[in-house]
Design a protein that fits this description.
Helix content is 10%, strand content 53%. The chain is mainly beta. The protein has one domain. The protein has a ten-stranded antiparallel beta barrel. The N terminus is likely disordered.
Length: 232
């Protein structure tokens, strides 16, 4: 699974950059917000969740002039943690995009995640800088690549007891989405994640760490509203 995810990442990156120039001349930017409903089905078994993984929730995309965009979303997952055989998650995210060219932009995302199980409750935040490329593979689309920067506490300090250690997740995340109909998008996404197991935060020692992979099929419904002669 990890080898497949790596090859898939390289293929998507190369293909997206090749098609970006062609799409740049044909894409118009809507000037009003786009409201969406996102759904995802995939696998996160490497990260400790029982398959299949399911996420759904609303989002909004707000173009600002021709150079900027602000996106926000909230997603819920009823996935069970393997170690507790229960659990659910909520994640919110805010993303800003600066379009350097019509087809190429830099992005920065801030996410906040909550996990509830019968044995523990956990919350954390993440930052993901990245790029966004508009492309055209018969359908208009967007390719995005970002890197998850590790955050959170590891060892207890006088000011922070760090009762639950952060797994210090980090790694690349990629996605490709296509506008397959006027108000329907389909996409694929995946991530390769390096993370660490729990240990005693009061006794600084080495932790056991792992690599894992996650992949998803994504379907997005765009509510009627912001539309131009060319999808996003």
């Amino acid at each position: 699974m990890r080898i497949t995810a790596g090859v898939w990442c390289l293929c998507l990156c190369a293909a997206s950059l090749c098609c970006a120039s062609a799409s740049a001349q044909r894409i118009n930017t809507p000037i009003s917000p786009r409201w969406l409903l996102n759904t995802s089905v995939g696998g996160e078994s490497d990260l400790g969740y029982e398959p299949p993984s399911k996420w759904f929730g609303p989002s909004i995309e707000v173009p600002i002039a021709s150079r900027f965009e602000f996106d926000a979303d909230a997603s819920y997952s009823p996935d069970k943690k393997v170690i507790t055989n229960n659990g659910n998650q909520l994640e919110t995210a805010a993303t800003g995009i600066v379009w350097l060219r019509r087809n190429l932009g830099f992005s920065s995302s801030y996410t906040r995640n909550w996990l509830w199980t019968s044995q523990f409750t956990k919350a954390g935040w993440s930052v993901l800088p990245g790029i966004v490329v508009r492309n055209d593979f018969q359908y208009f689309g967007r390719f995005s690549a970002a890197y998850l920067i590790p955050t959170g506490c590891v060892w207890a300090t006088p000011s922070n007891p760090c009762r639950i250690q952060s797994p210090r997740e980090q790694g690349p995340e990629i996605s490709q989405q296509f506008q397959i109909a006027s108000h329907l998008r389909f996409g694929v996404s995946g991530a390769i994640v390096h993370y660490c197991d729990q240990s005693n935060p009061a006794e600084p020692t080495g932790r056991t760490c792992h690599f894992g992979a996650a992949s998803y099929l994504n379907l997005t419904i765009e509510f009627p509203g912001a539309r131009t002669d060319e999808p996003y």
